Structure formats: C-alpha cells, structure tokens
Amino acid sequence: MSAAISPTTGKAYGVQRVCCAWEMPRSSFYGRVARKAVPLTLLKRGPKTPLTDDEVLALIQTDLETSSFIGEGHRKVWGRLRFVKGIKVGRKRVLRLMRENNLLSPHRVVQGQPKKHDGKIITAAPNVMWGTDGTKVFTSEEGWCWLFTAVEHWNAECVGWHVTKNGDRFAALQPLSMAIKARFGSVGAAAARGLVLRMDHGTQYLSEHFQNQIKFWGITPSFAFVAEPQTNGVTERFNRTIKEQVIYGRHYRTIEEVRAAVADFMGRYNQKWLVEKLGFRSPRQAFEEYQLQMAA
Predict the structure, then answer these.
(1) What spatial distance separates the first Cα and last Cα of the chain, rounded to whole Å?
(2) Are residues 166 and 240 located together in one domain of the fold?
(3) Which parts of the chain are coiled coil (predicted)?
(4) Percent of the chain's residues with pLDDT above 70
(5) Which listed residue, of 266, 271, 277, 296, carries a Cα 20 to 30 Å from 114's Cα?
(6) Interatomic CA distance for residues 290 and 183, integer angstroms
(7) CA distance linking residue 232 with residue 238, whole number of Å
(8) pLDDT, tens digit, for every residue of 217-266?
(9) Domain enclosing residue 37, as ranges
(10) Residue 201's CB: how many other CB atoms inside 10 A?
(11) What is the DSSP letter of 80?
(12) What pLDDT is recorded for position 136?
C-alpha cells in the first residue's frame, strides 16, 4: 500500500506513515515482505552443514559395512566418523539417521514378546498377598541408610518396616519377620502358609538365604516383571507416600532420627491415612471391620 499513488494528492506515502495510520509496527511489514521473498521450504534453523543427510547416511552405511565388529551403536559410528576420519558431524544427527533407517544395534532392543500385566494385584481379603521393597534415605552424619517395608495388598497397610545402615538380605527379611509375628503370632515353620510375597529382582530378594527363609515361613514368592515397577505398585505407591510425608524436604543427621520419624509416621499412617479404595477408611479401620465381619 505504501507504493500506491494517492488519487487525491497524486503522491506516494511512505512505509512509516502507512504503518502509523494502520497502527502496525514496521517490523511486521518488513517481516511479511521477507517471508514472501524467501520460500518457507528453503528456511532451515541453525548453521548450514557441509554434508546433506543422504551423504551422512552413506558414510554411516559404509562405516557399518567396513567395521570389524557387529552390533555397534550410534556412538561408535559417530566416534569413528568424527575422531578417526575427521568428518565433522553431530552425534545426535547420526543417531537420528540410524534410527530412521533401522541401523541401530539389534542387540539393544527388548527381546521377545512383552509381558502383559492385565491382572489385578489388589486382593479381595487380607493376608493373601504382601509386597516388599527397599529404598534409601540420606543422613548428614552417617551417610545413606536403608528403609525396608512390607505392605498388605488388600488395604495398603504397612505391616512391617526396618531402618538400617546395611541393606543386605538379612535386613530385607526384618519387616517380614515383624509382620508375620504381628499377624500370625509366630515366626516358626509354615507360620504364613498360603501367603504370596510380591517383590522385585533386587539382589536381596534373589539371594538364596532370602528365598529359603520365606519358603520356611510357607510364603510363595511372586516376582514383579523386569523394568515394570507397576507390577509391584502397592509397595511402590507406599514408598512414594512415605517419602513425600517423611523424607523429602527434611534433614536427618543420624539413622536413629530417620528411625524415629518413620516409626511415628507408621503409627499415624495405619490409623489415620484415608485410602480411596477402602471407601476413605484408614488401613487399620478397614482391617478391624473385616475381622468383626468374619467373626459375626
């Protein structure tokens, strides 16, 4: 419009006057002109690379074909291109091209069919399945310590816990021993016969001592799927709760301080924590009402 001739005055008005009349910044006008002058398909973010994607892909394929090894990932390919052959190319660019053309290492993908965890881990009655897991807590004077818990799958009640410096197989058994003593009255042979224990593949739980001990109590092991913590979701969710309520944002100097804080929380949690799946009742309230119902 700034180049048009006014029919009244016979003069052309400049860009500044026209933009002022239309209340539009001149930068928008010049930006519009620039975008019309250069096609959008030619615009590319970042600096121009000396090699096209097709040329880099050809170099990658040649490197894989001439390599003395098989099944290498994008880092090895990029390393040879960049440091051995002196070709300046980005590592992420090599990764993108290898992924788009199915050239990544075949040994680093999940093998076999995925396991479908379409069942339920919430039981219809107590003492059918428990879950156990361990997590770490930091103290300023004594370093890291371990917190092991045992959780009832039916009502999410914490039936046993143990805070210790060493997170070995013996420590992992302590919350179970505590829970079996409280629920079944004894830690003797077959005291918890029929109970199933859900756990992950931690070294404590895979140890021969741990497995032999729970079998002595009559407990059947049930392992969560590898790399799928949701299959041990009851205990994982409880660990998240205790971290949010007791661990995160708090400073502990010694393991004894952690132990005191956890002990205080366990009592409040079992008695007062409202669980939606229980009709917003606490774990202890739901368990006591279940016992009264069974006794009636």
Answers:
(1) 91
(2) yes
(3) none
(4) 93
(5) 277
(6) 14
(7) 10
(8) 999 999 998 888 889 999 999 999 999 999 999 999 999 999 999 999 99
(9) 1-43
(10) 11
(11) I
(12) 96
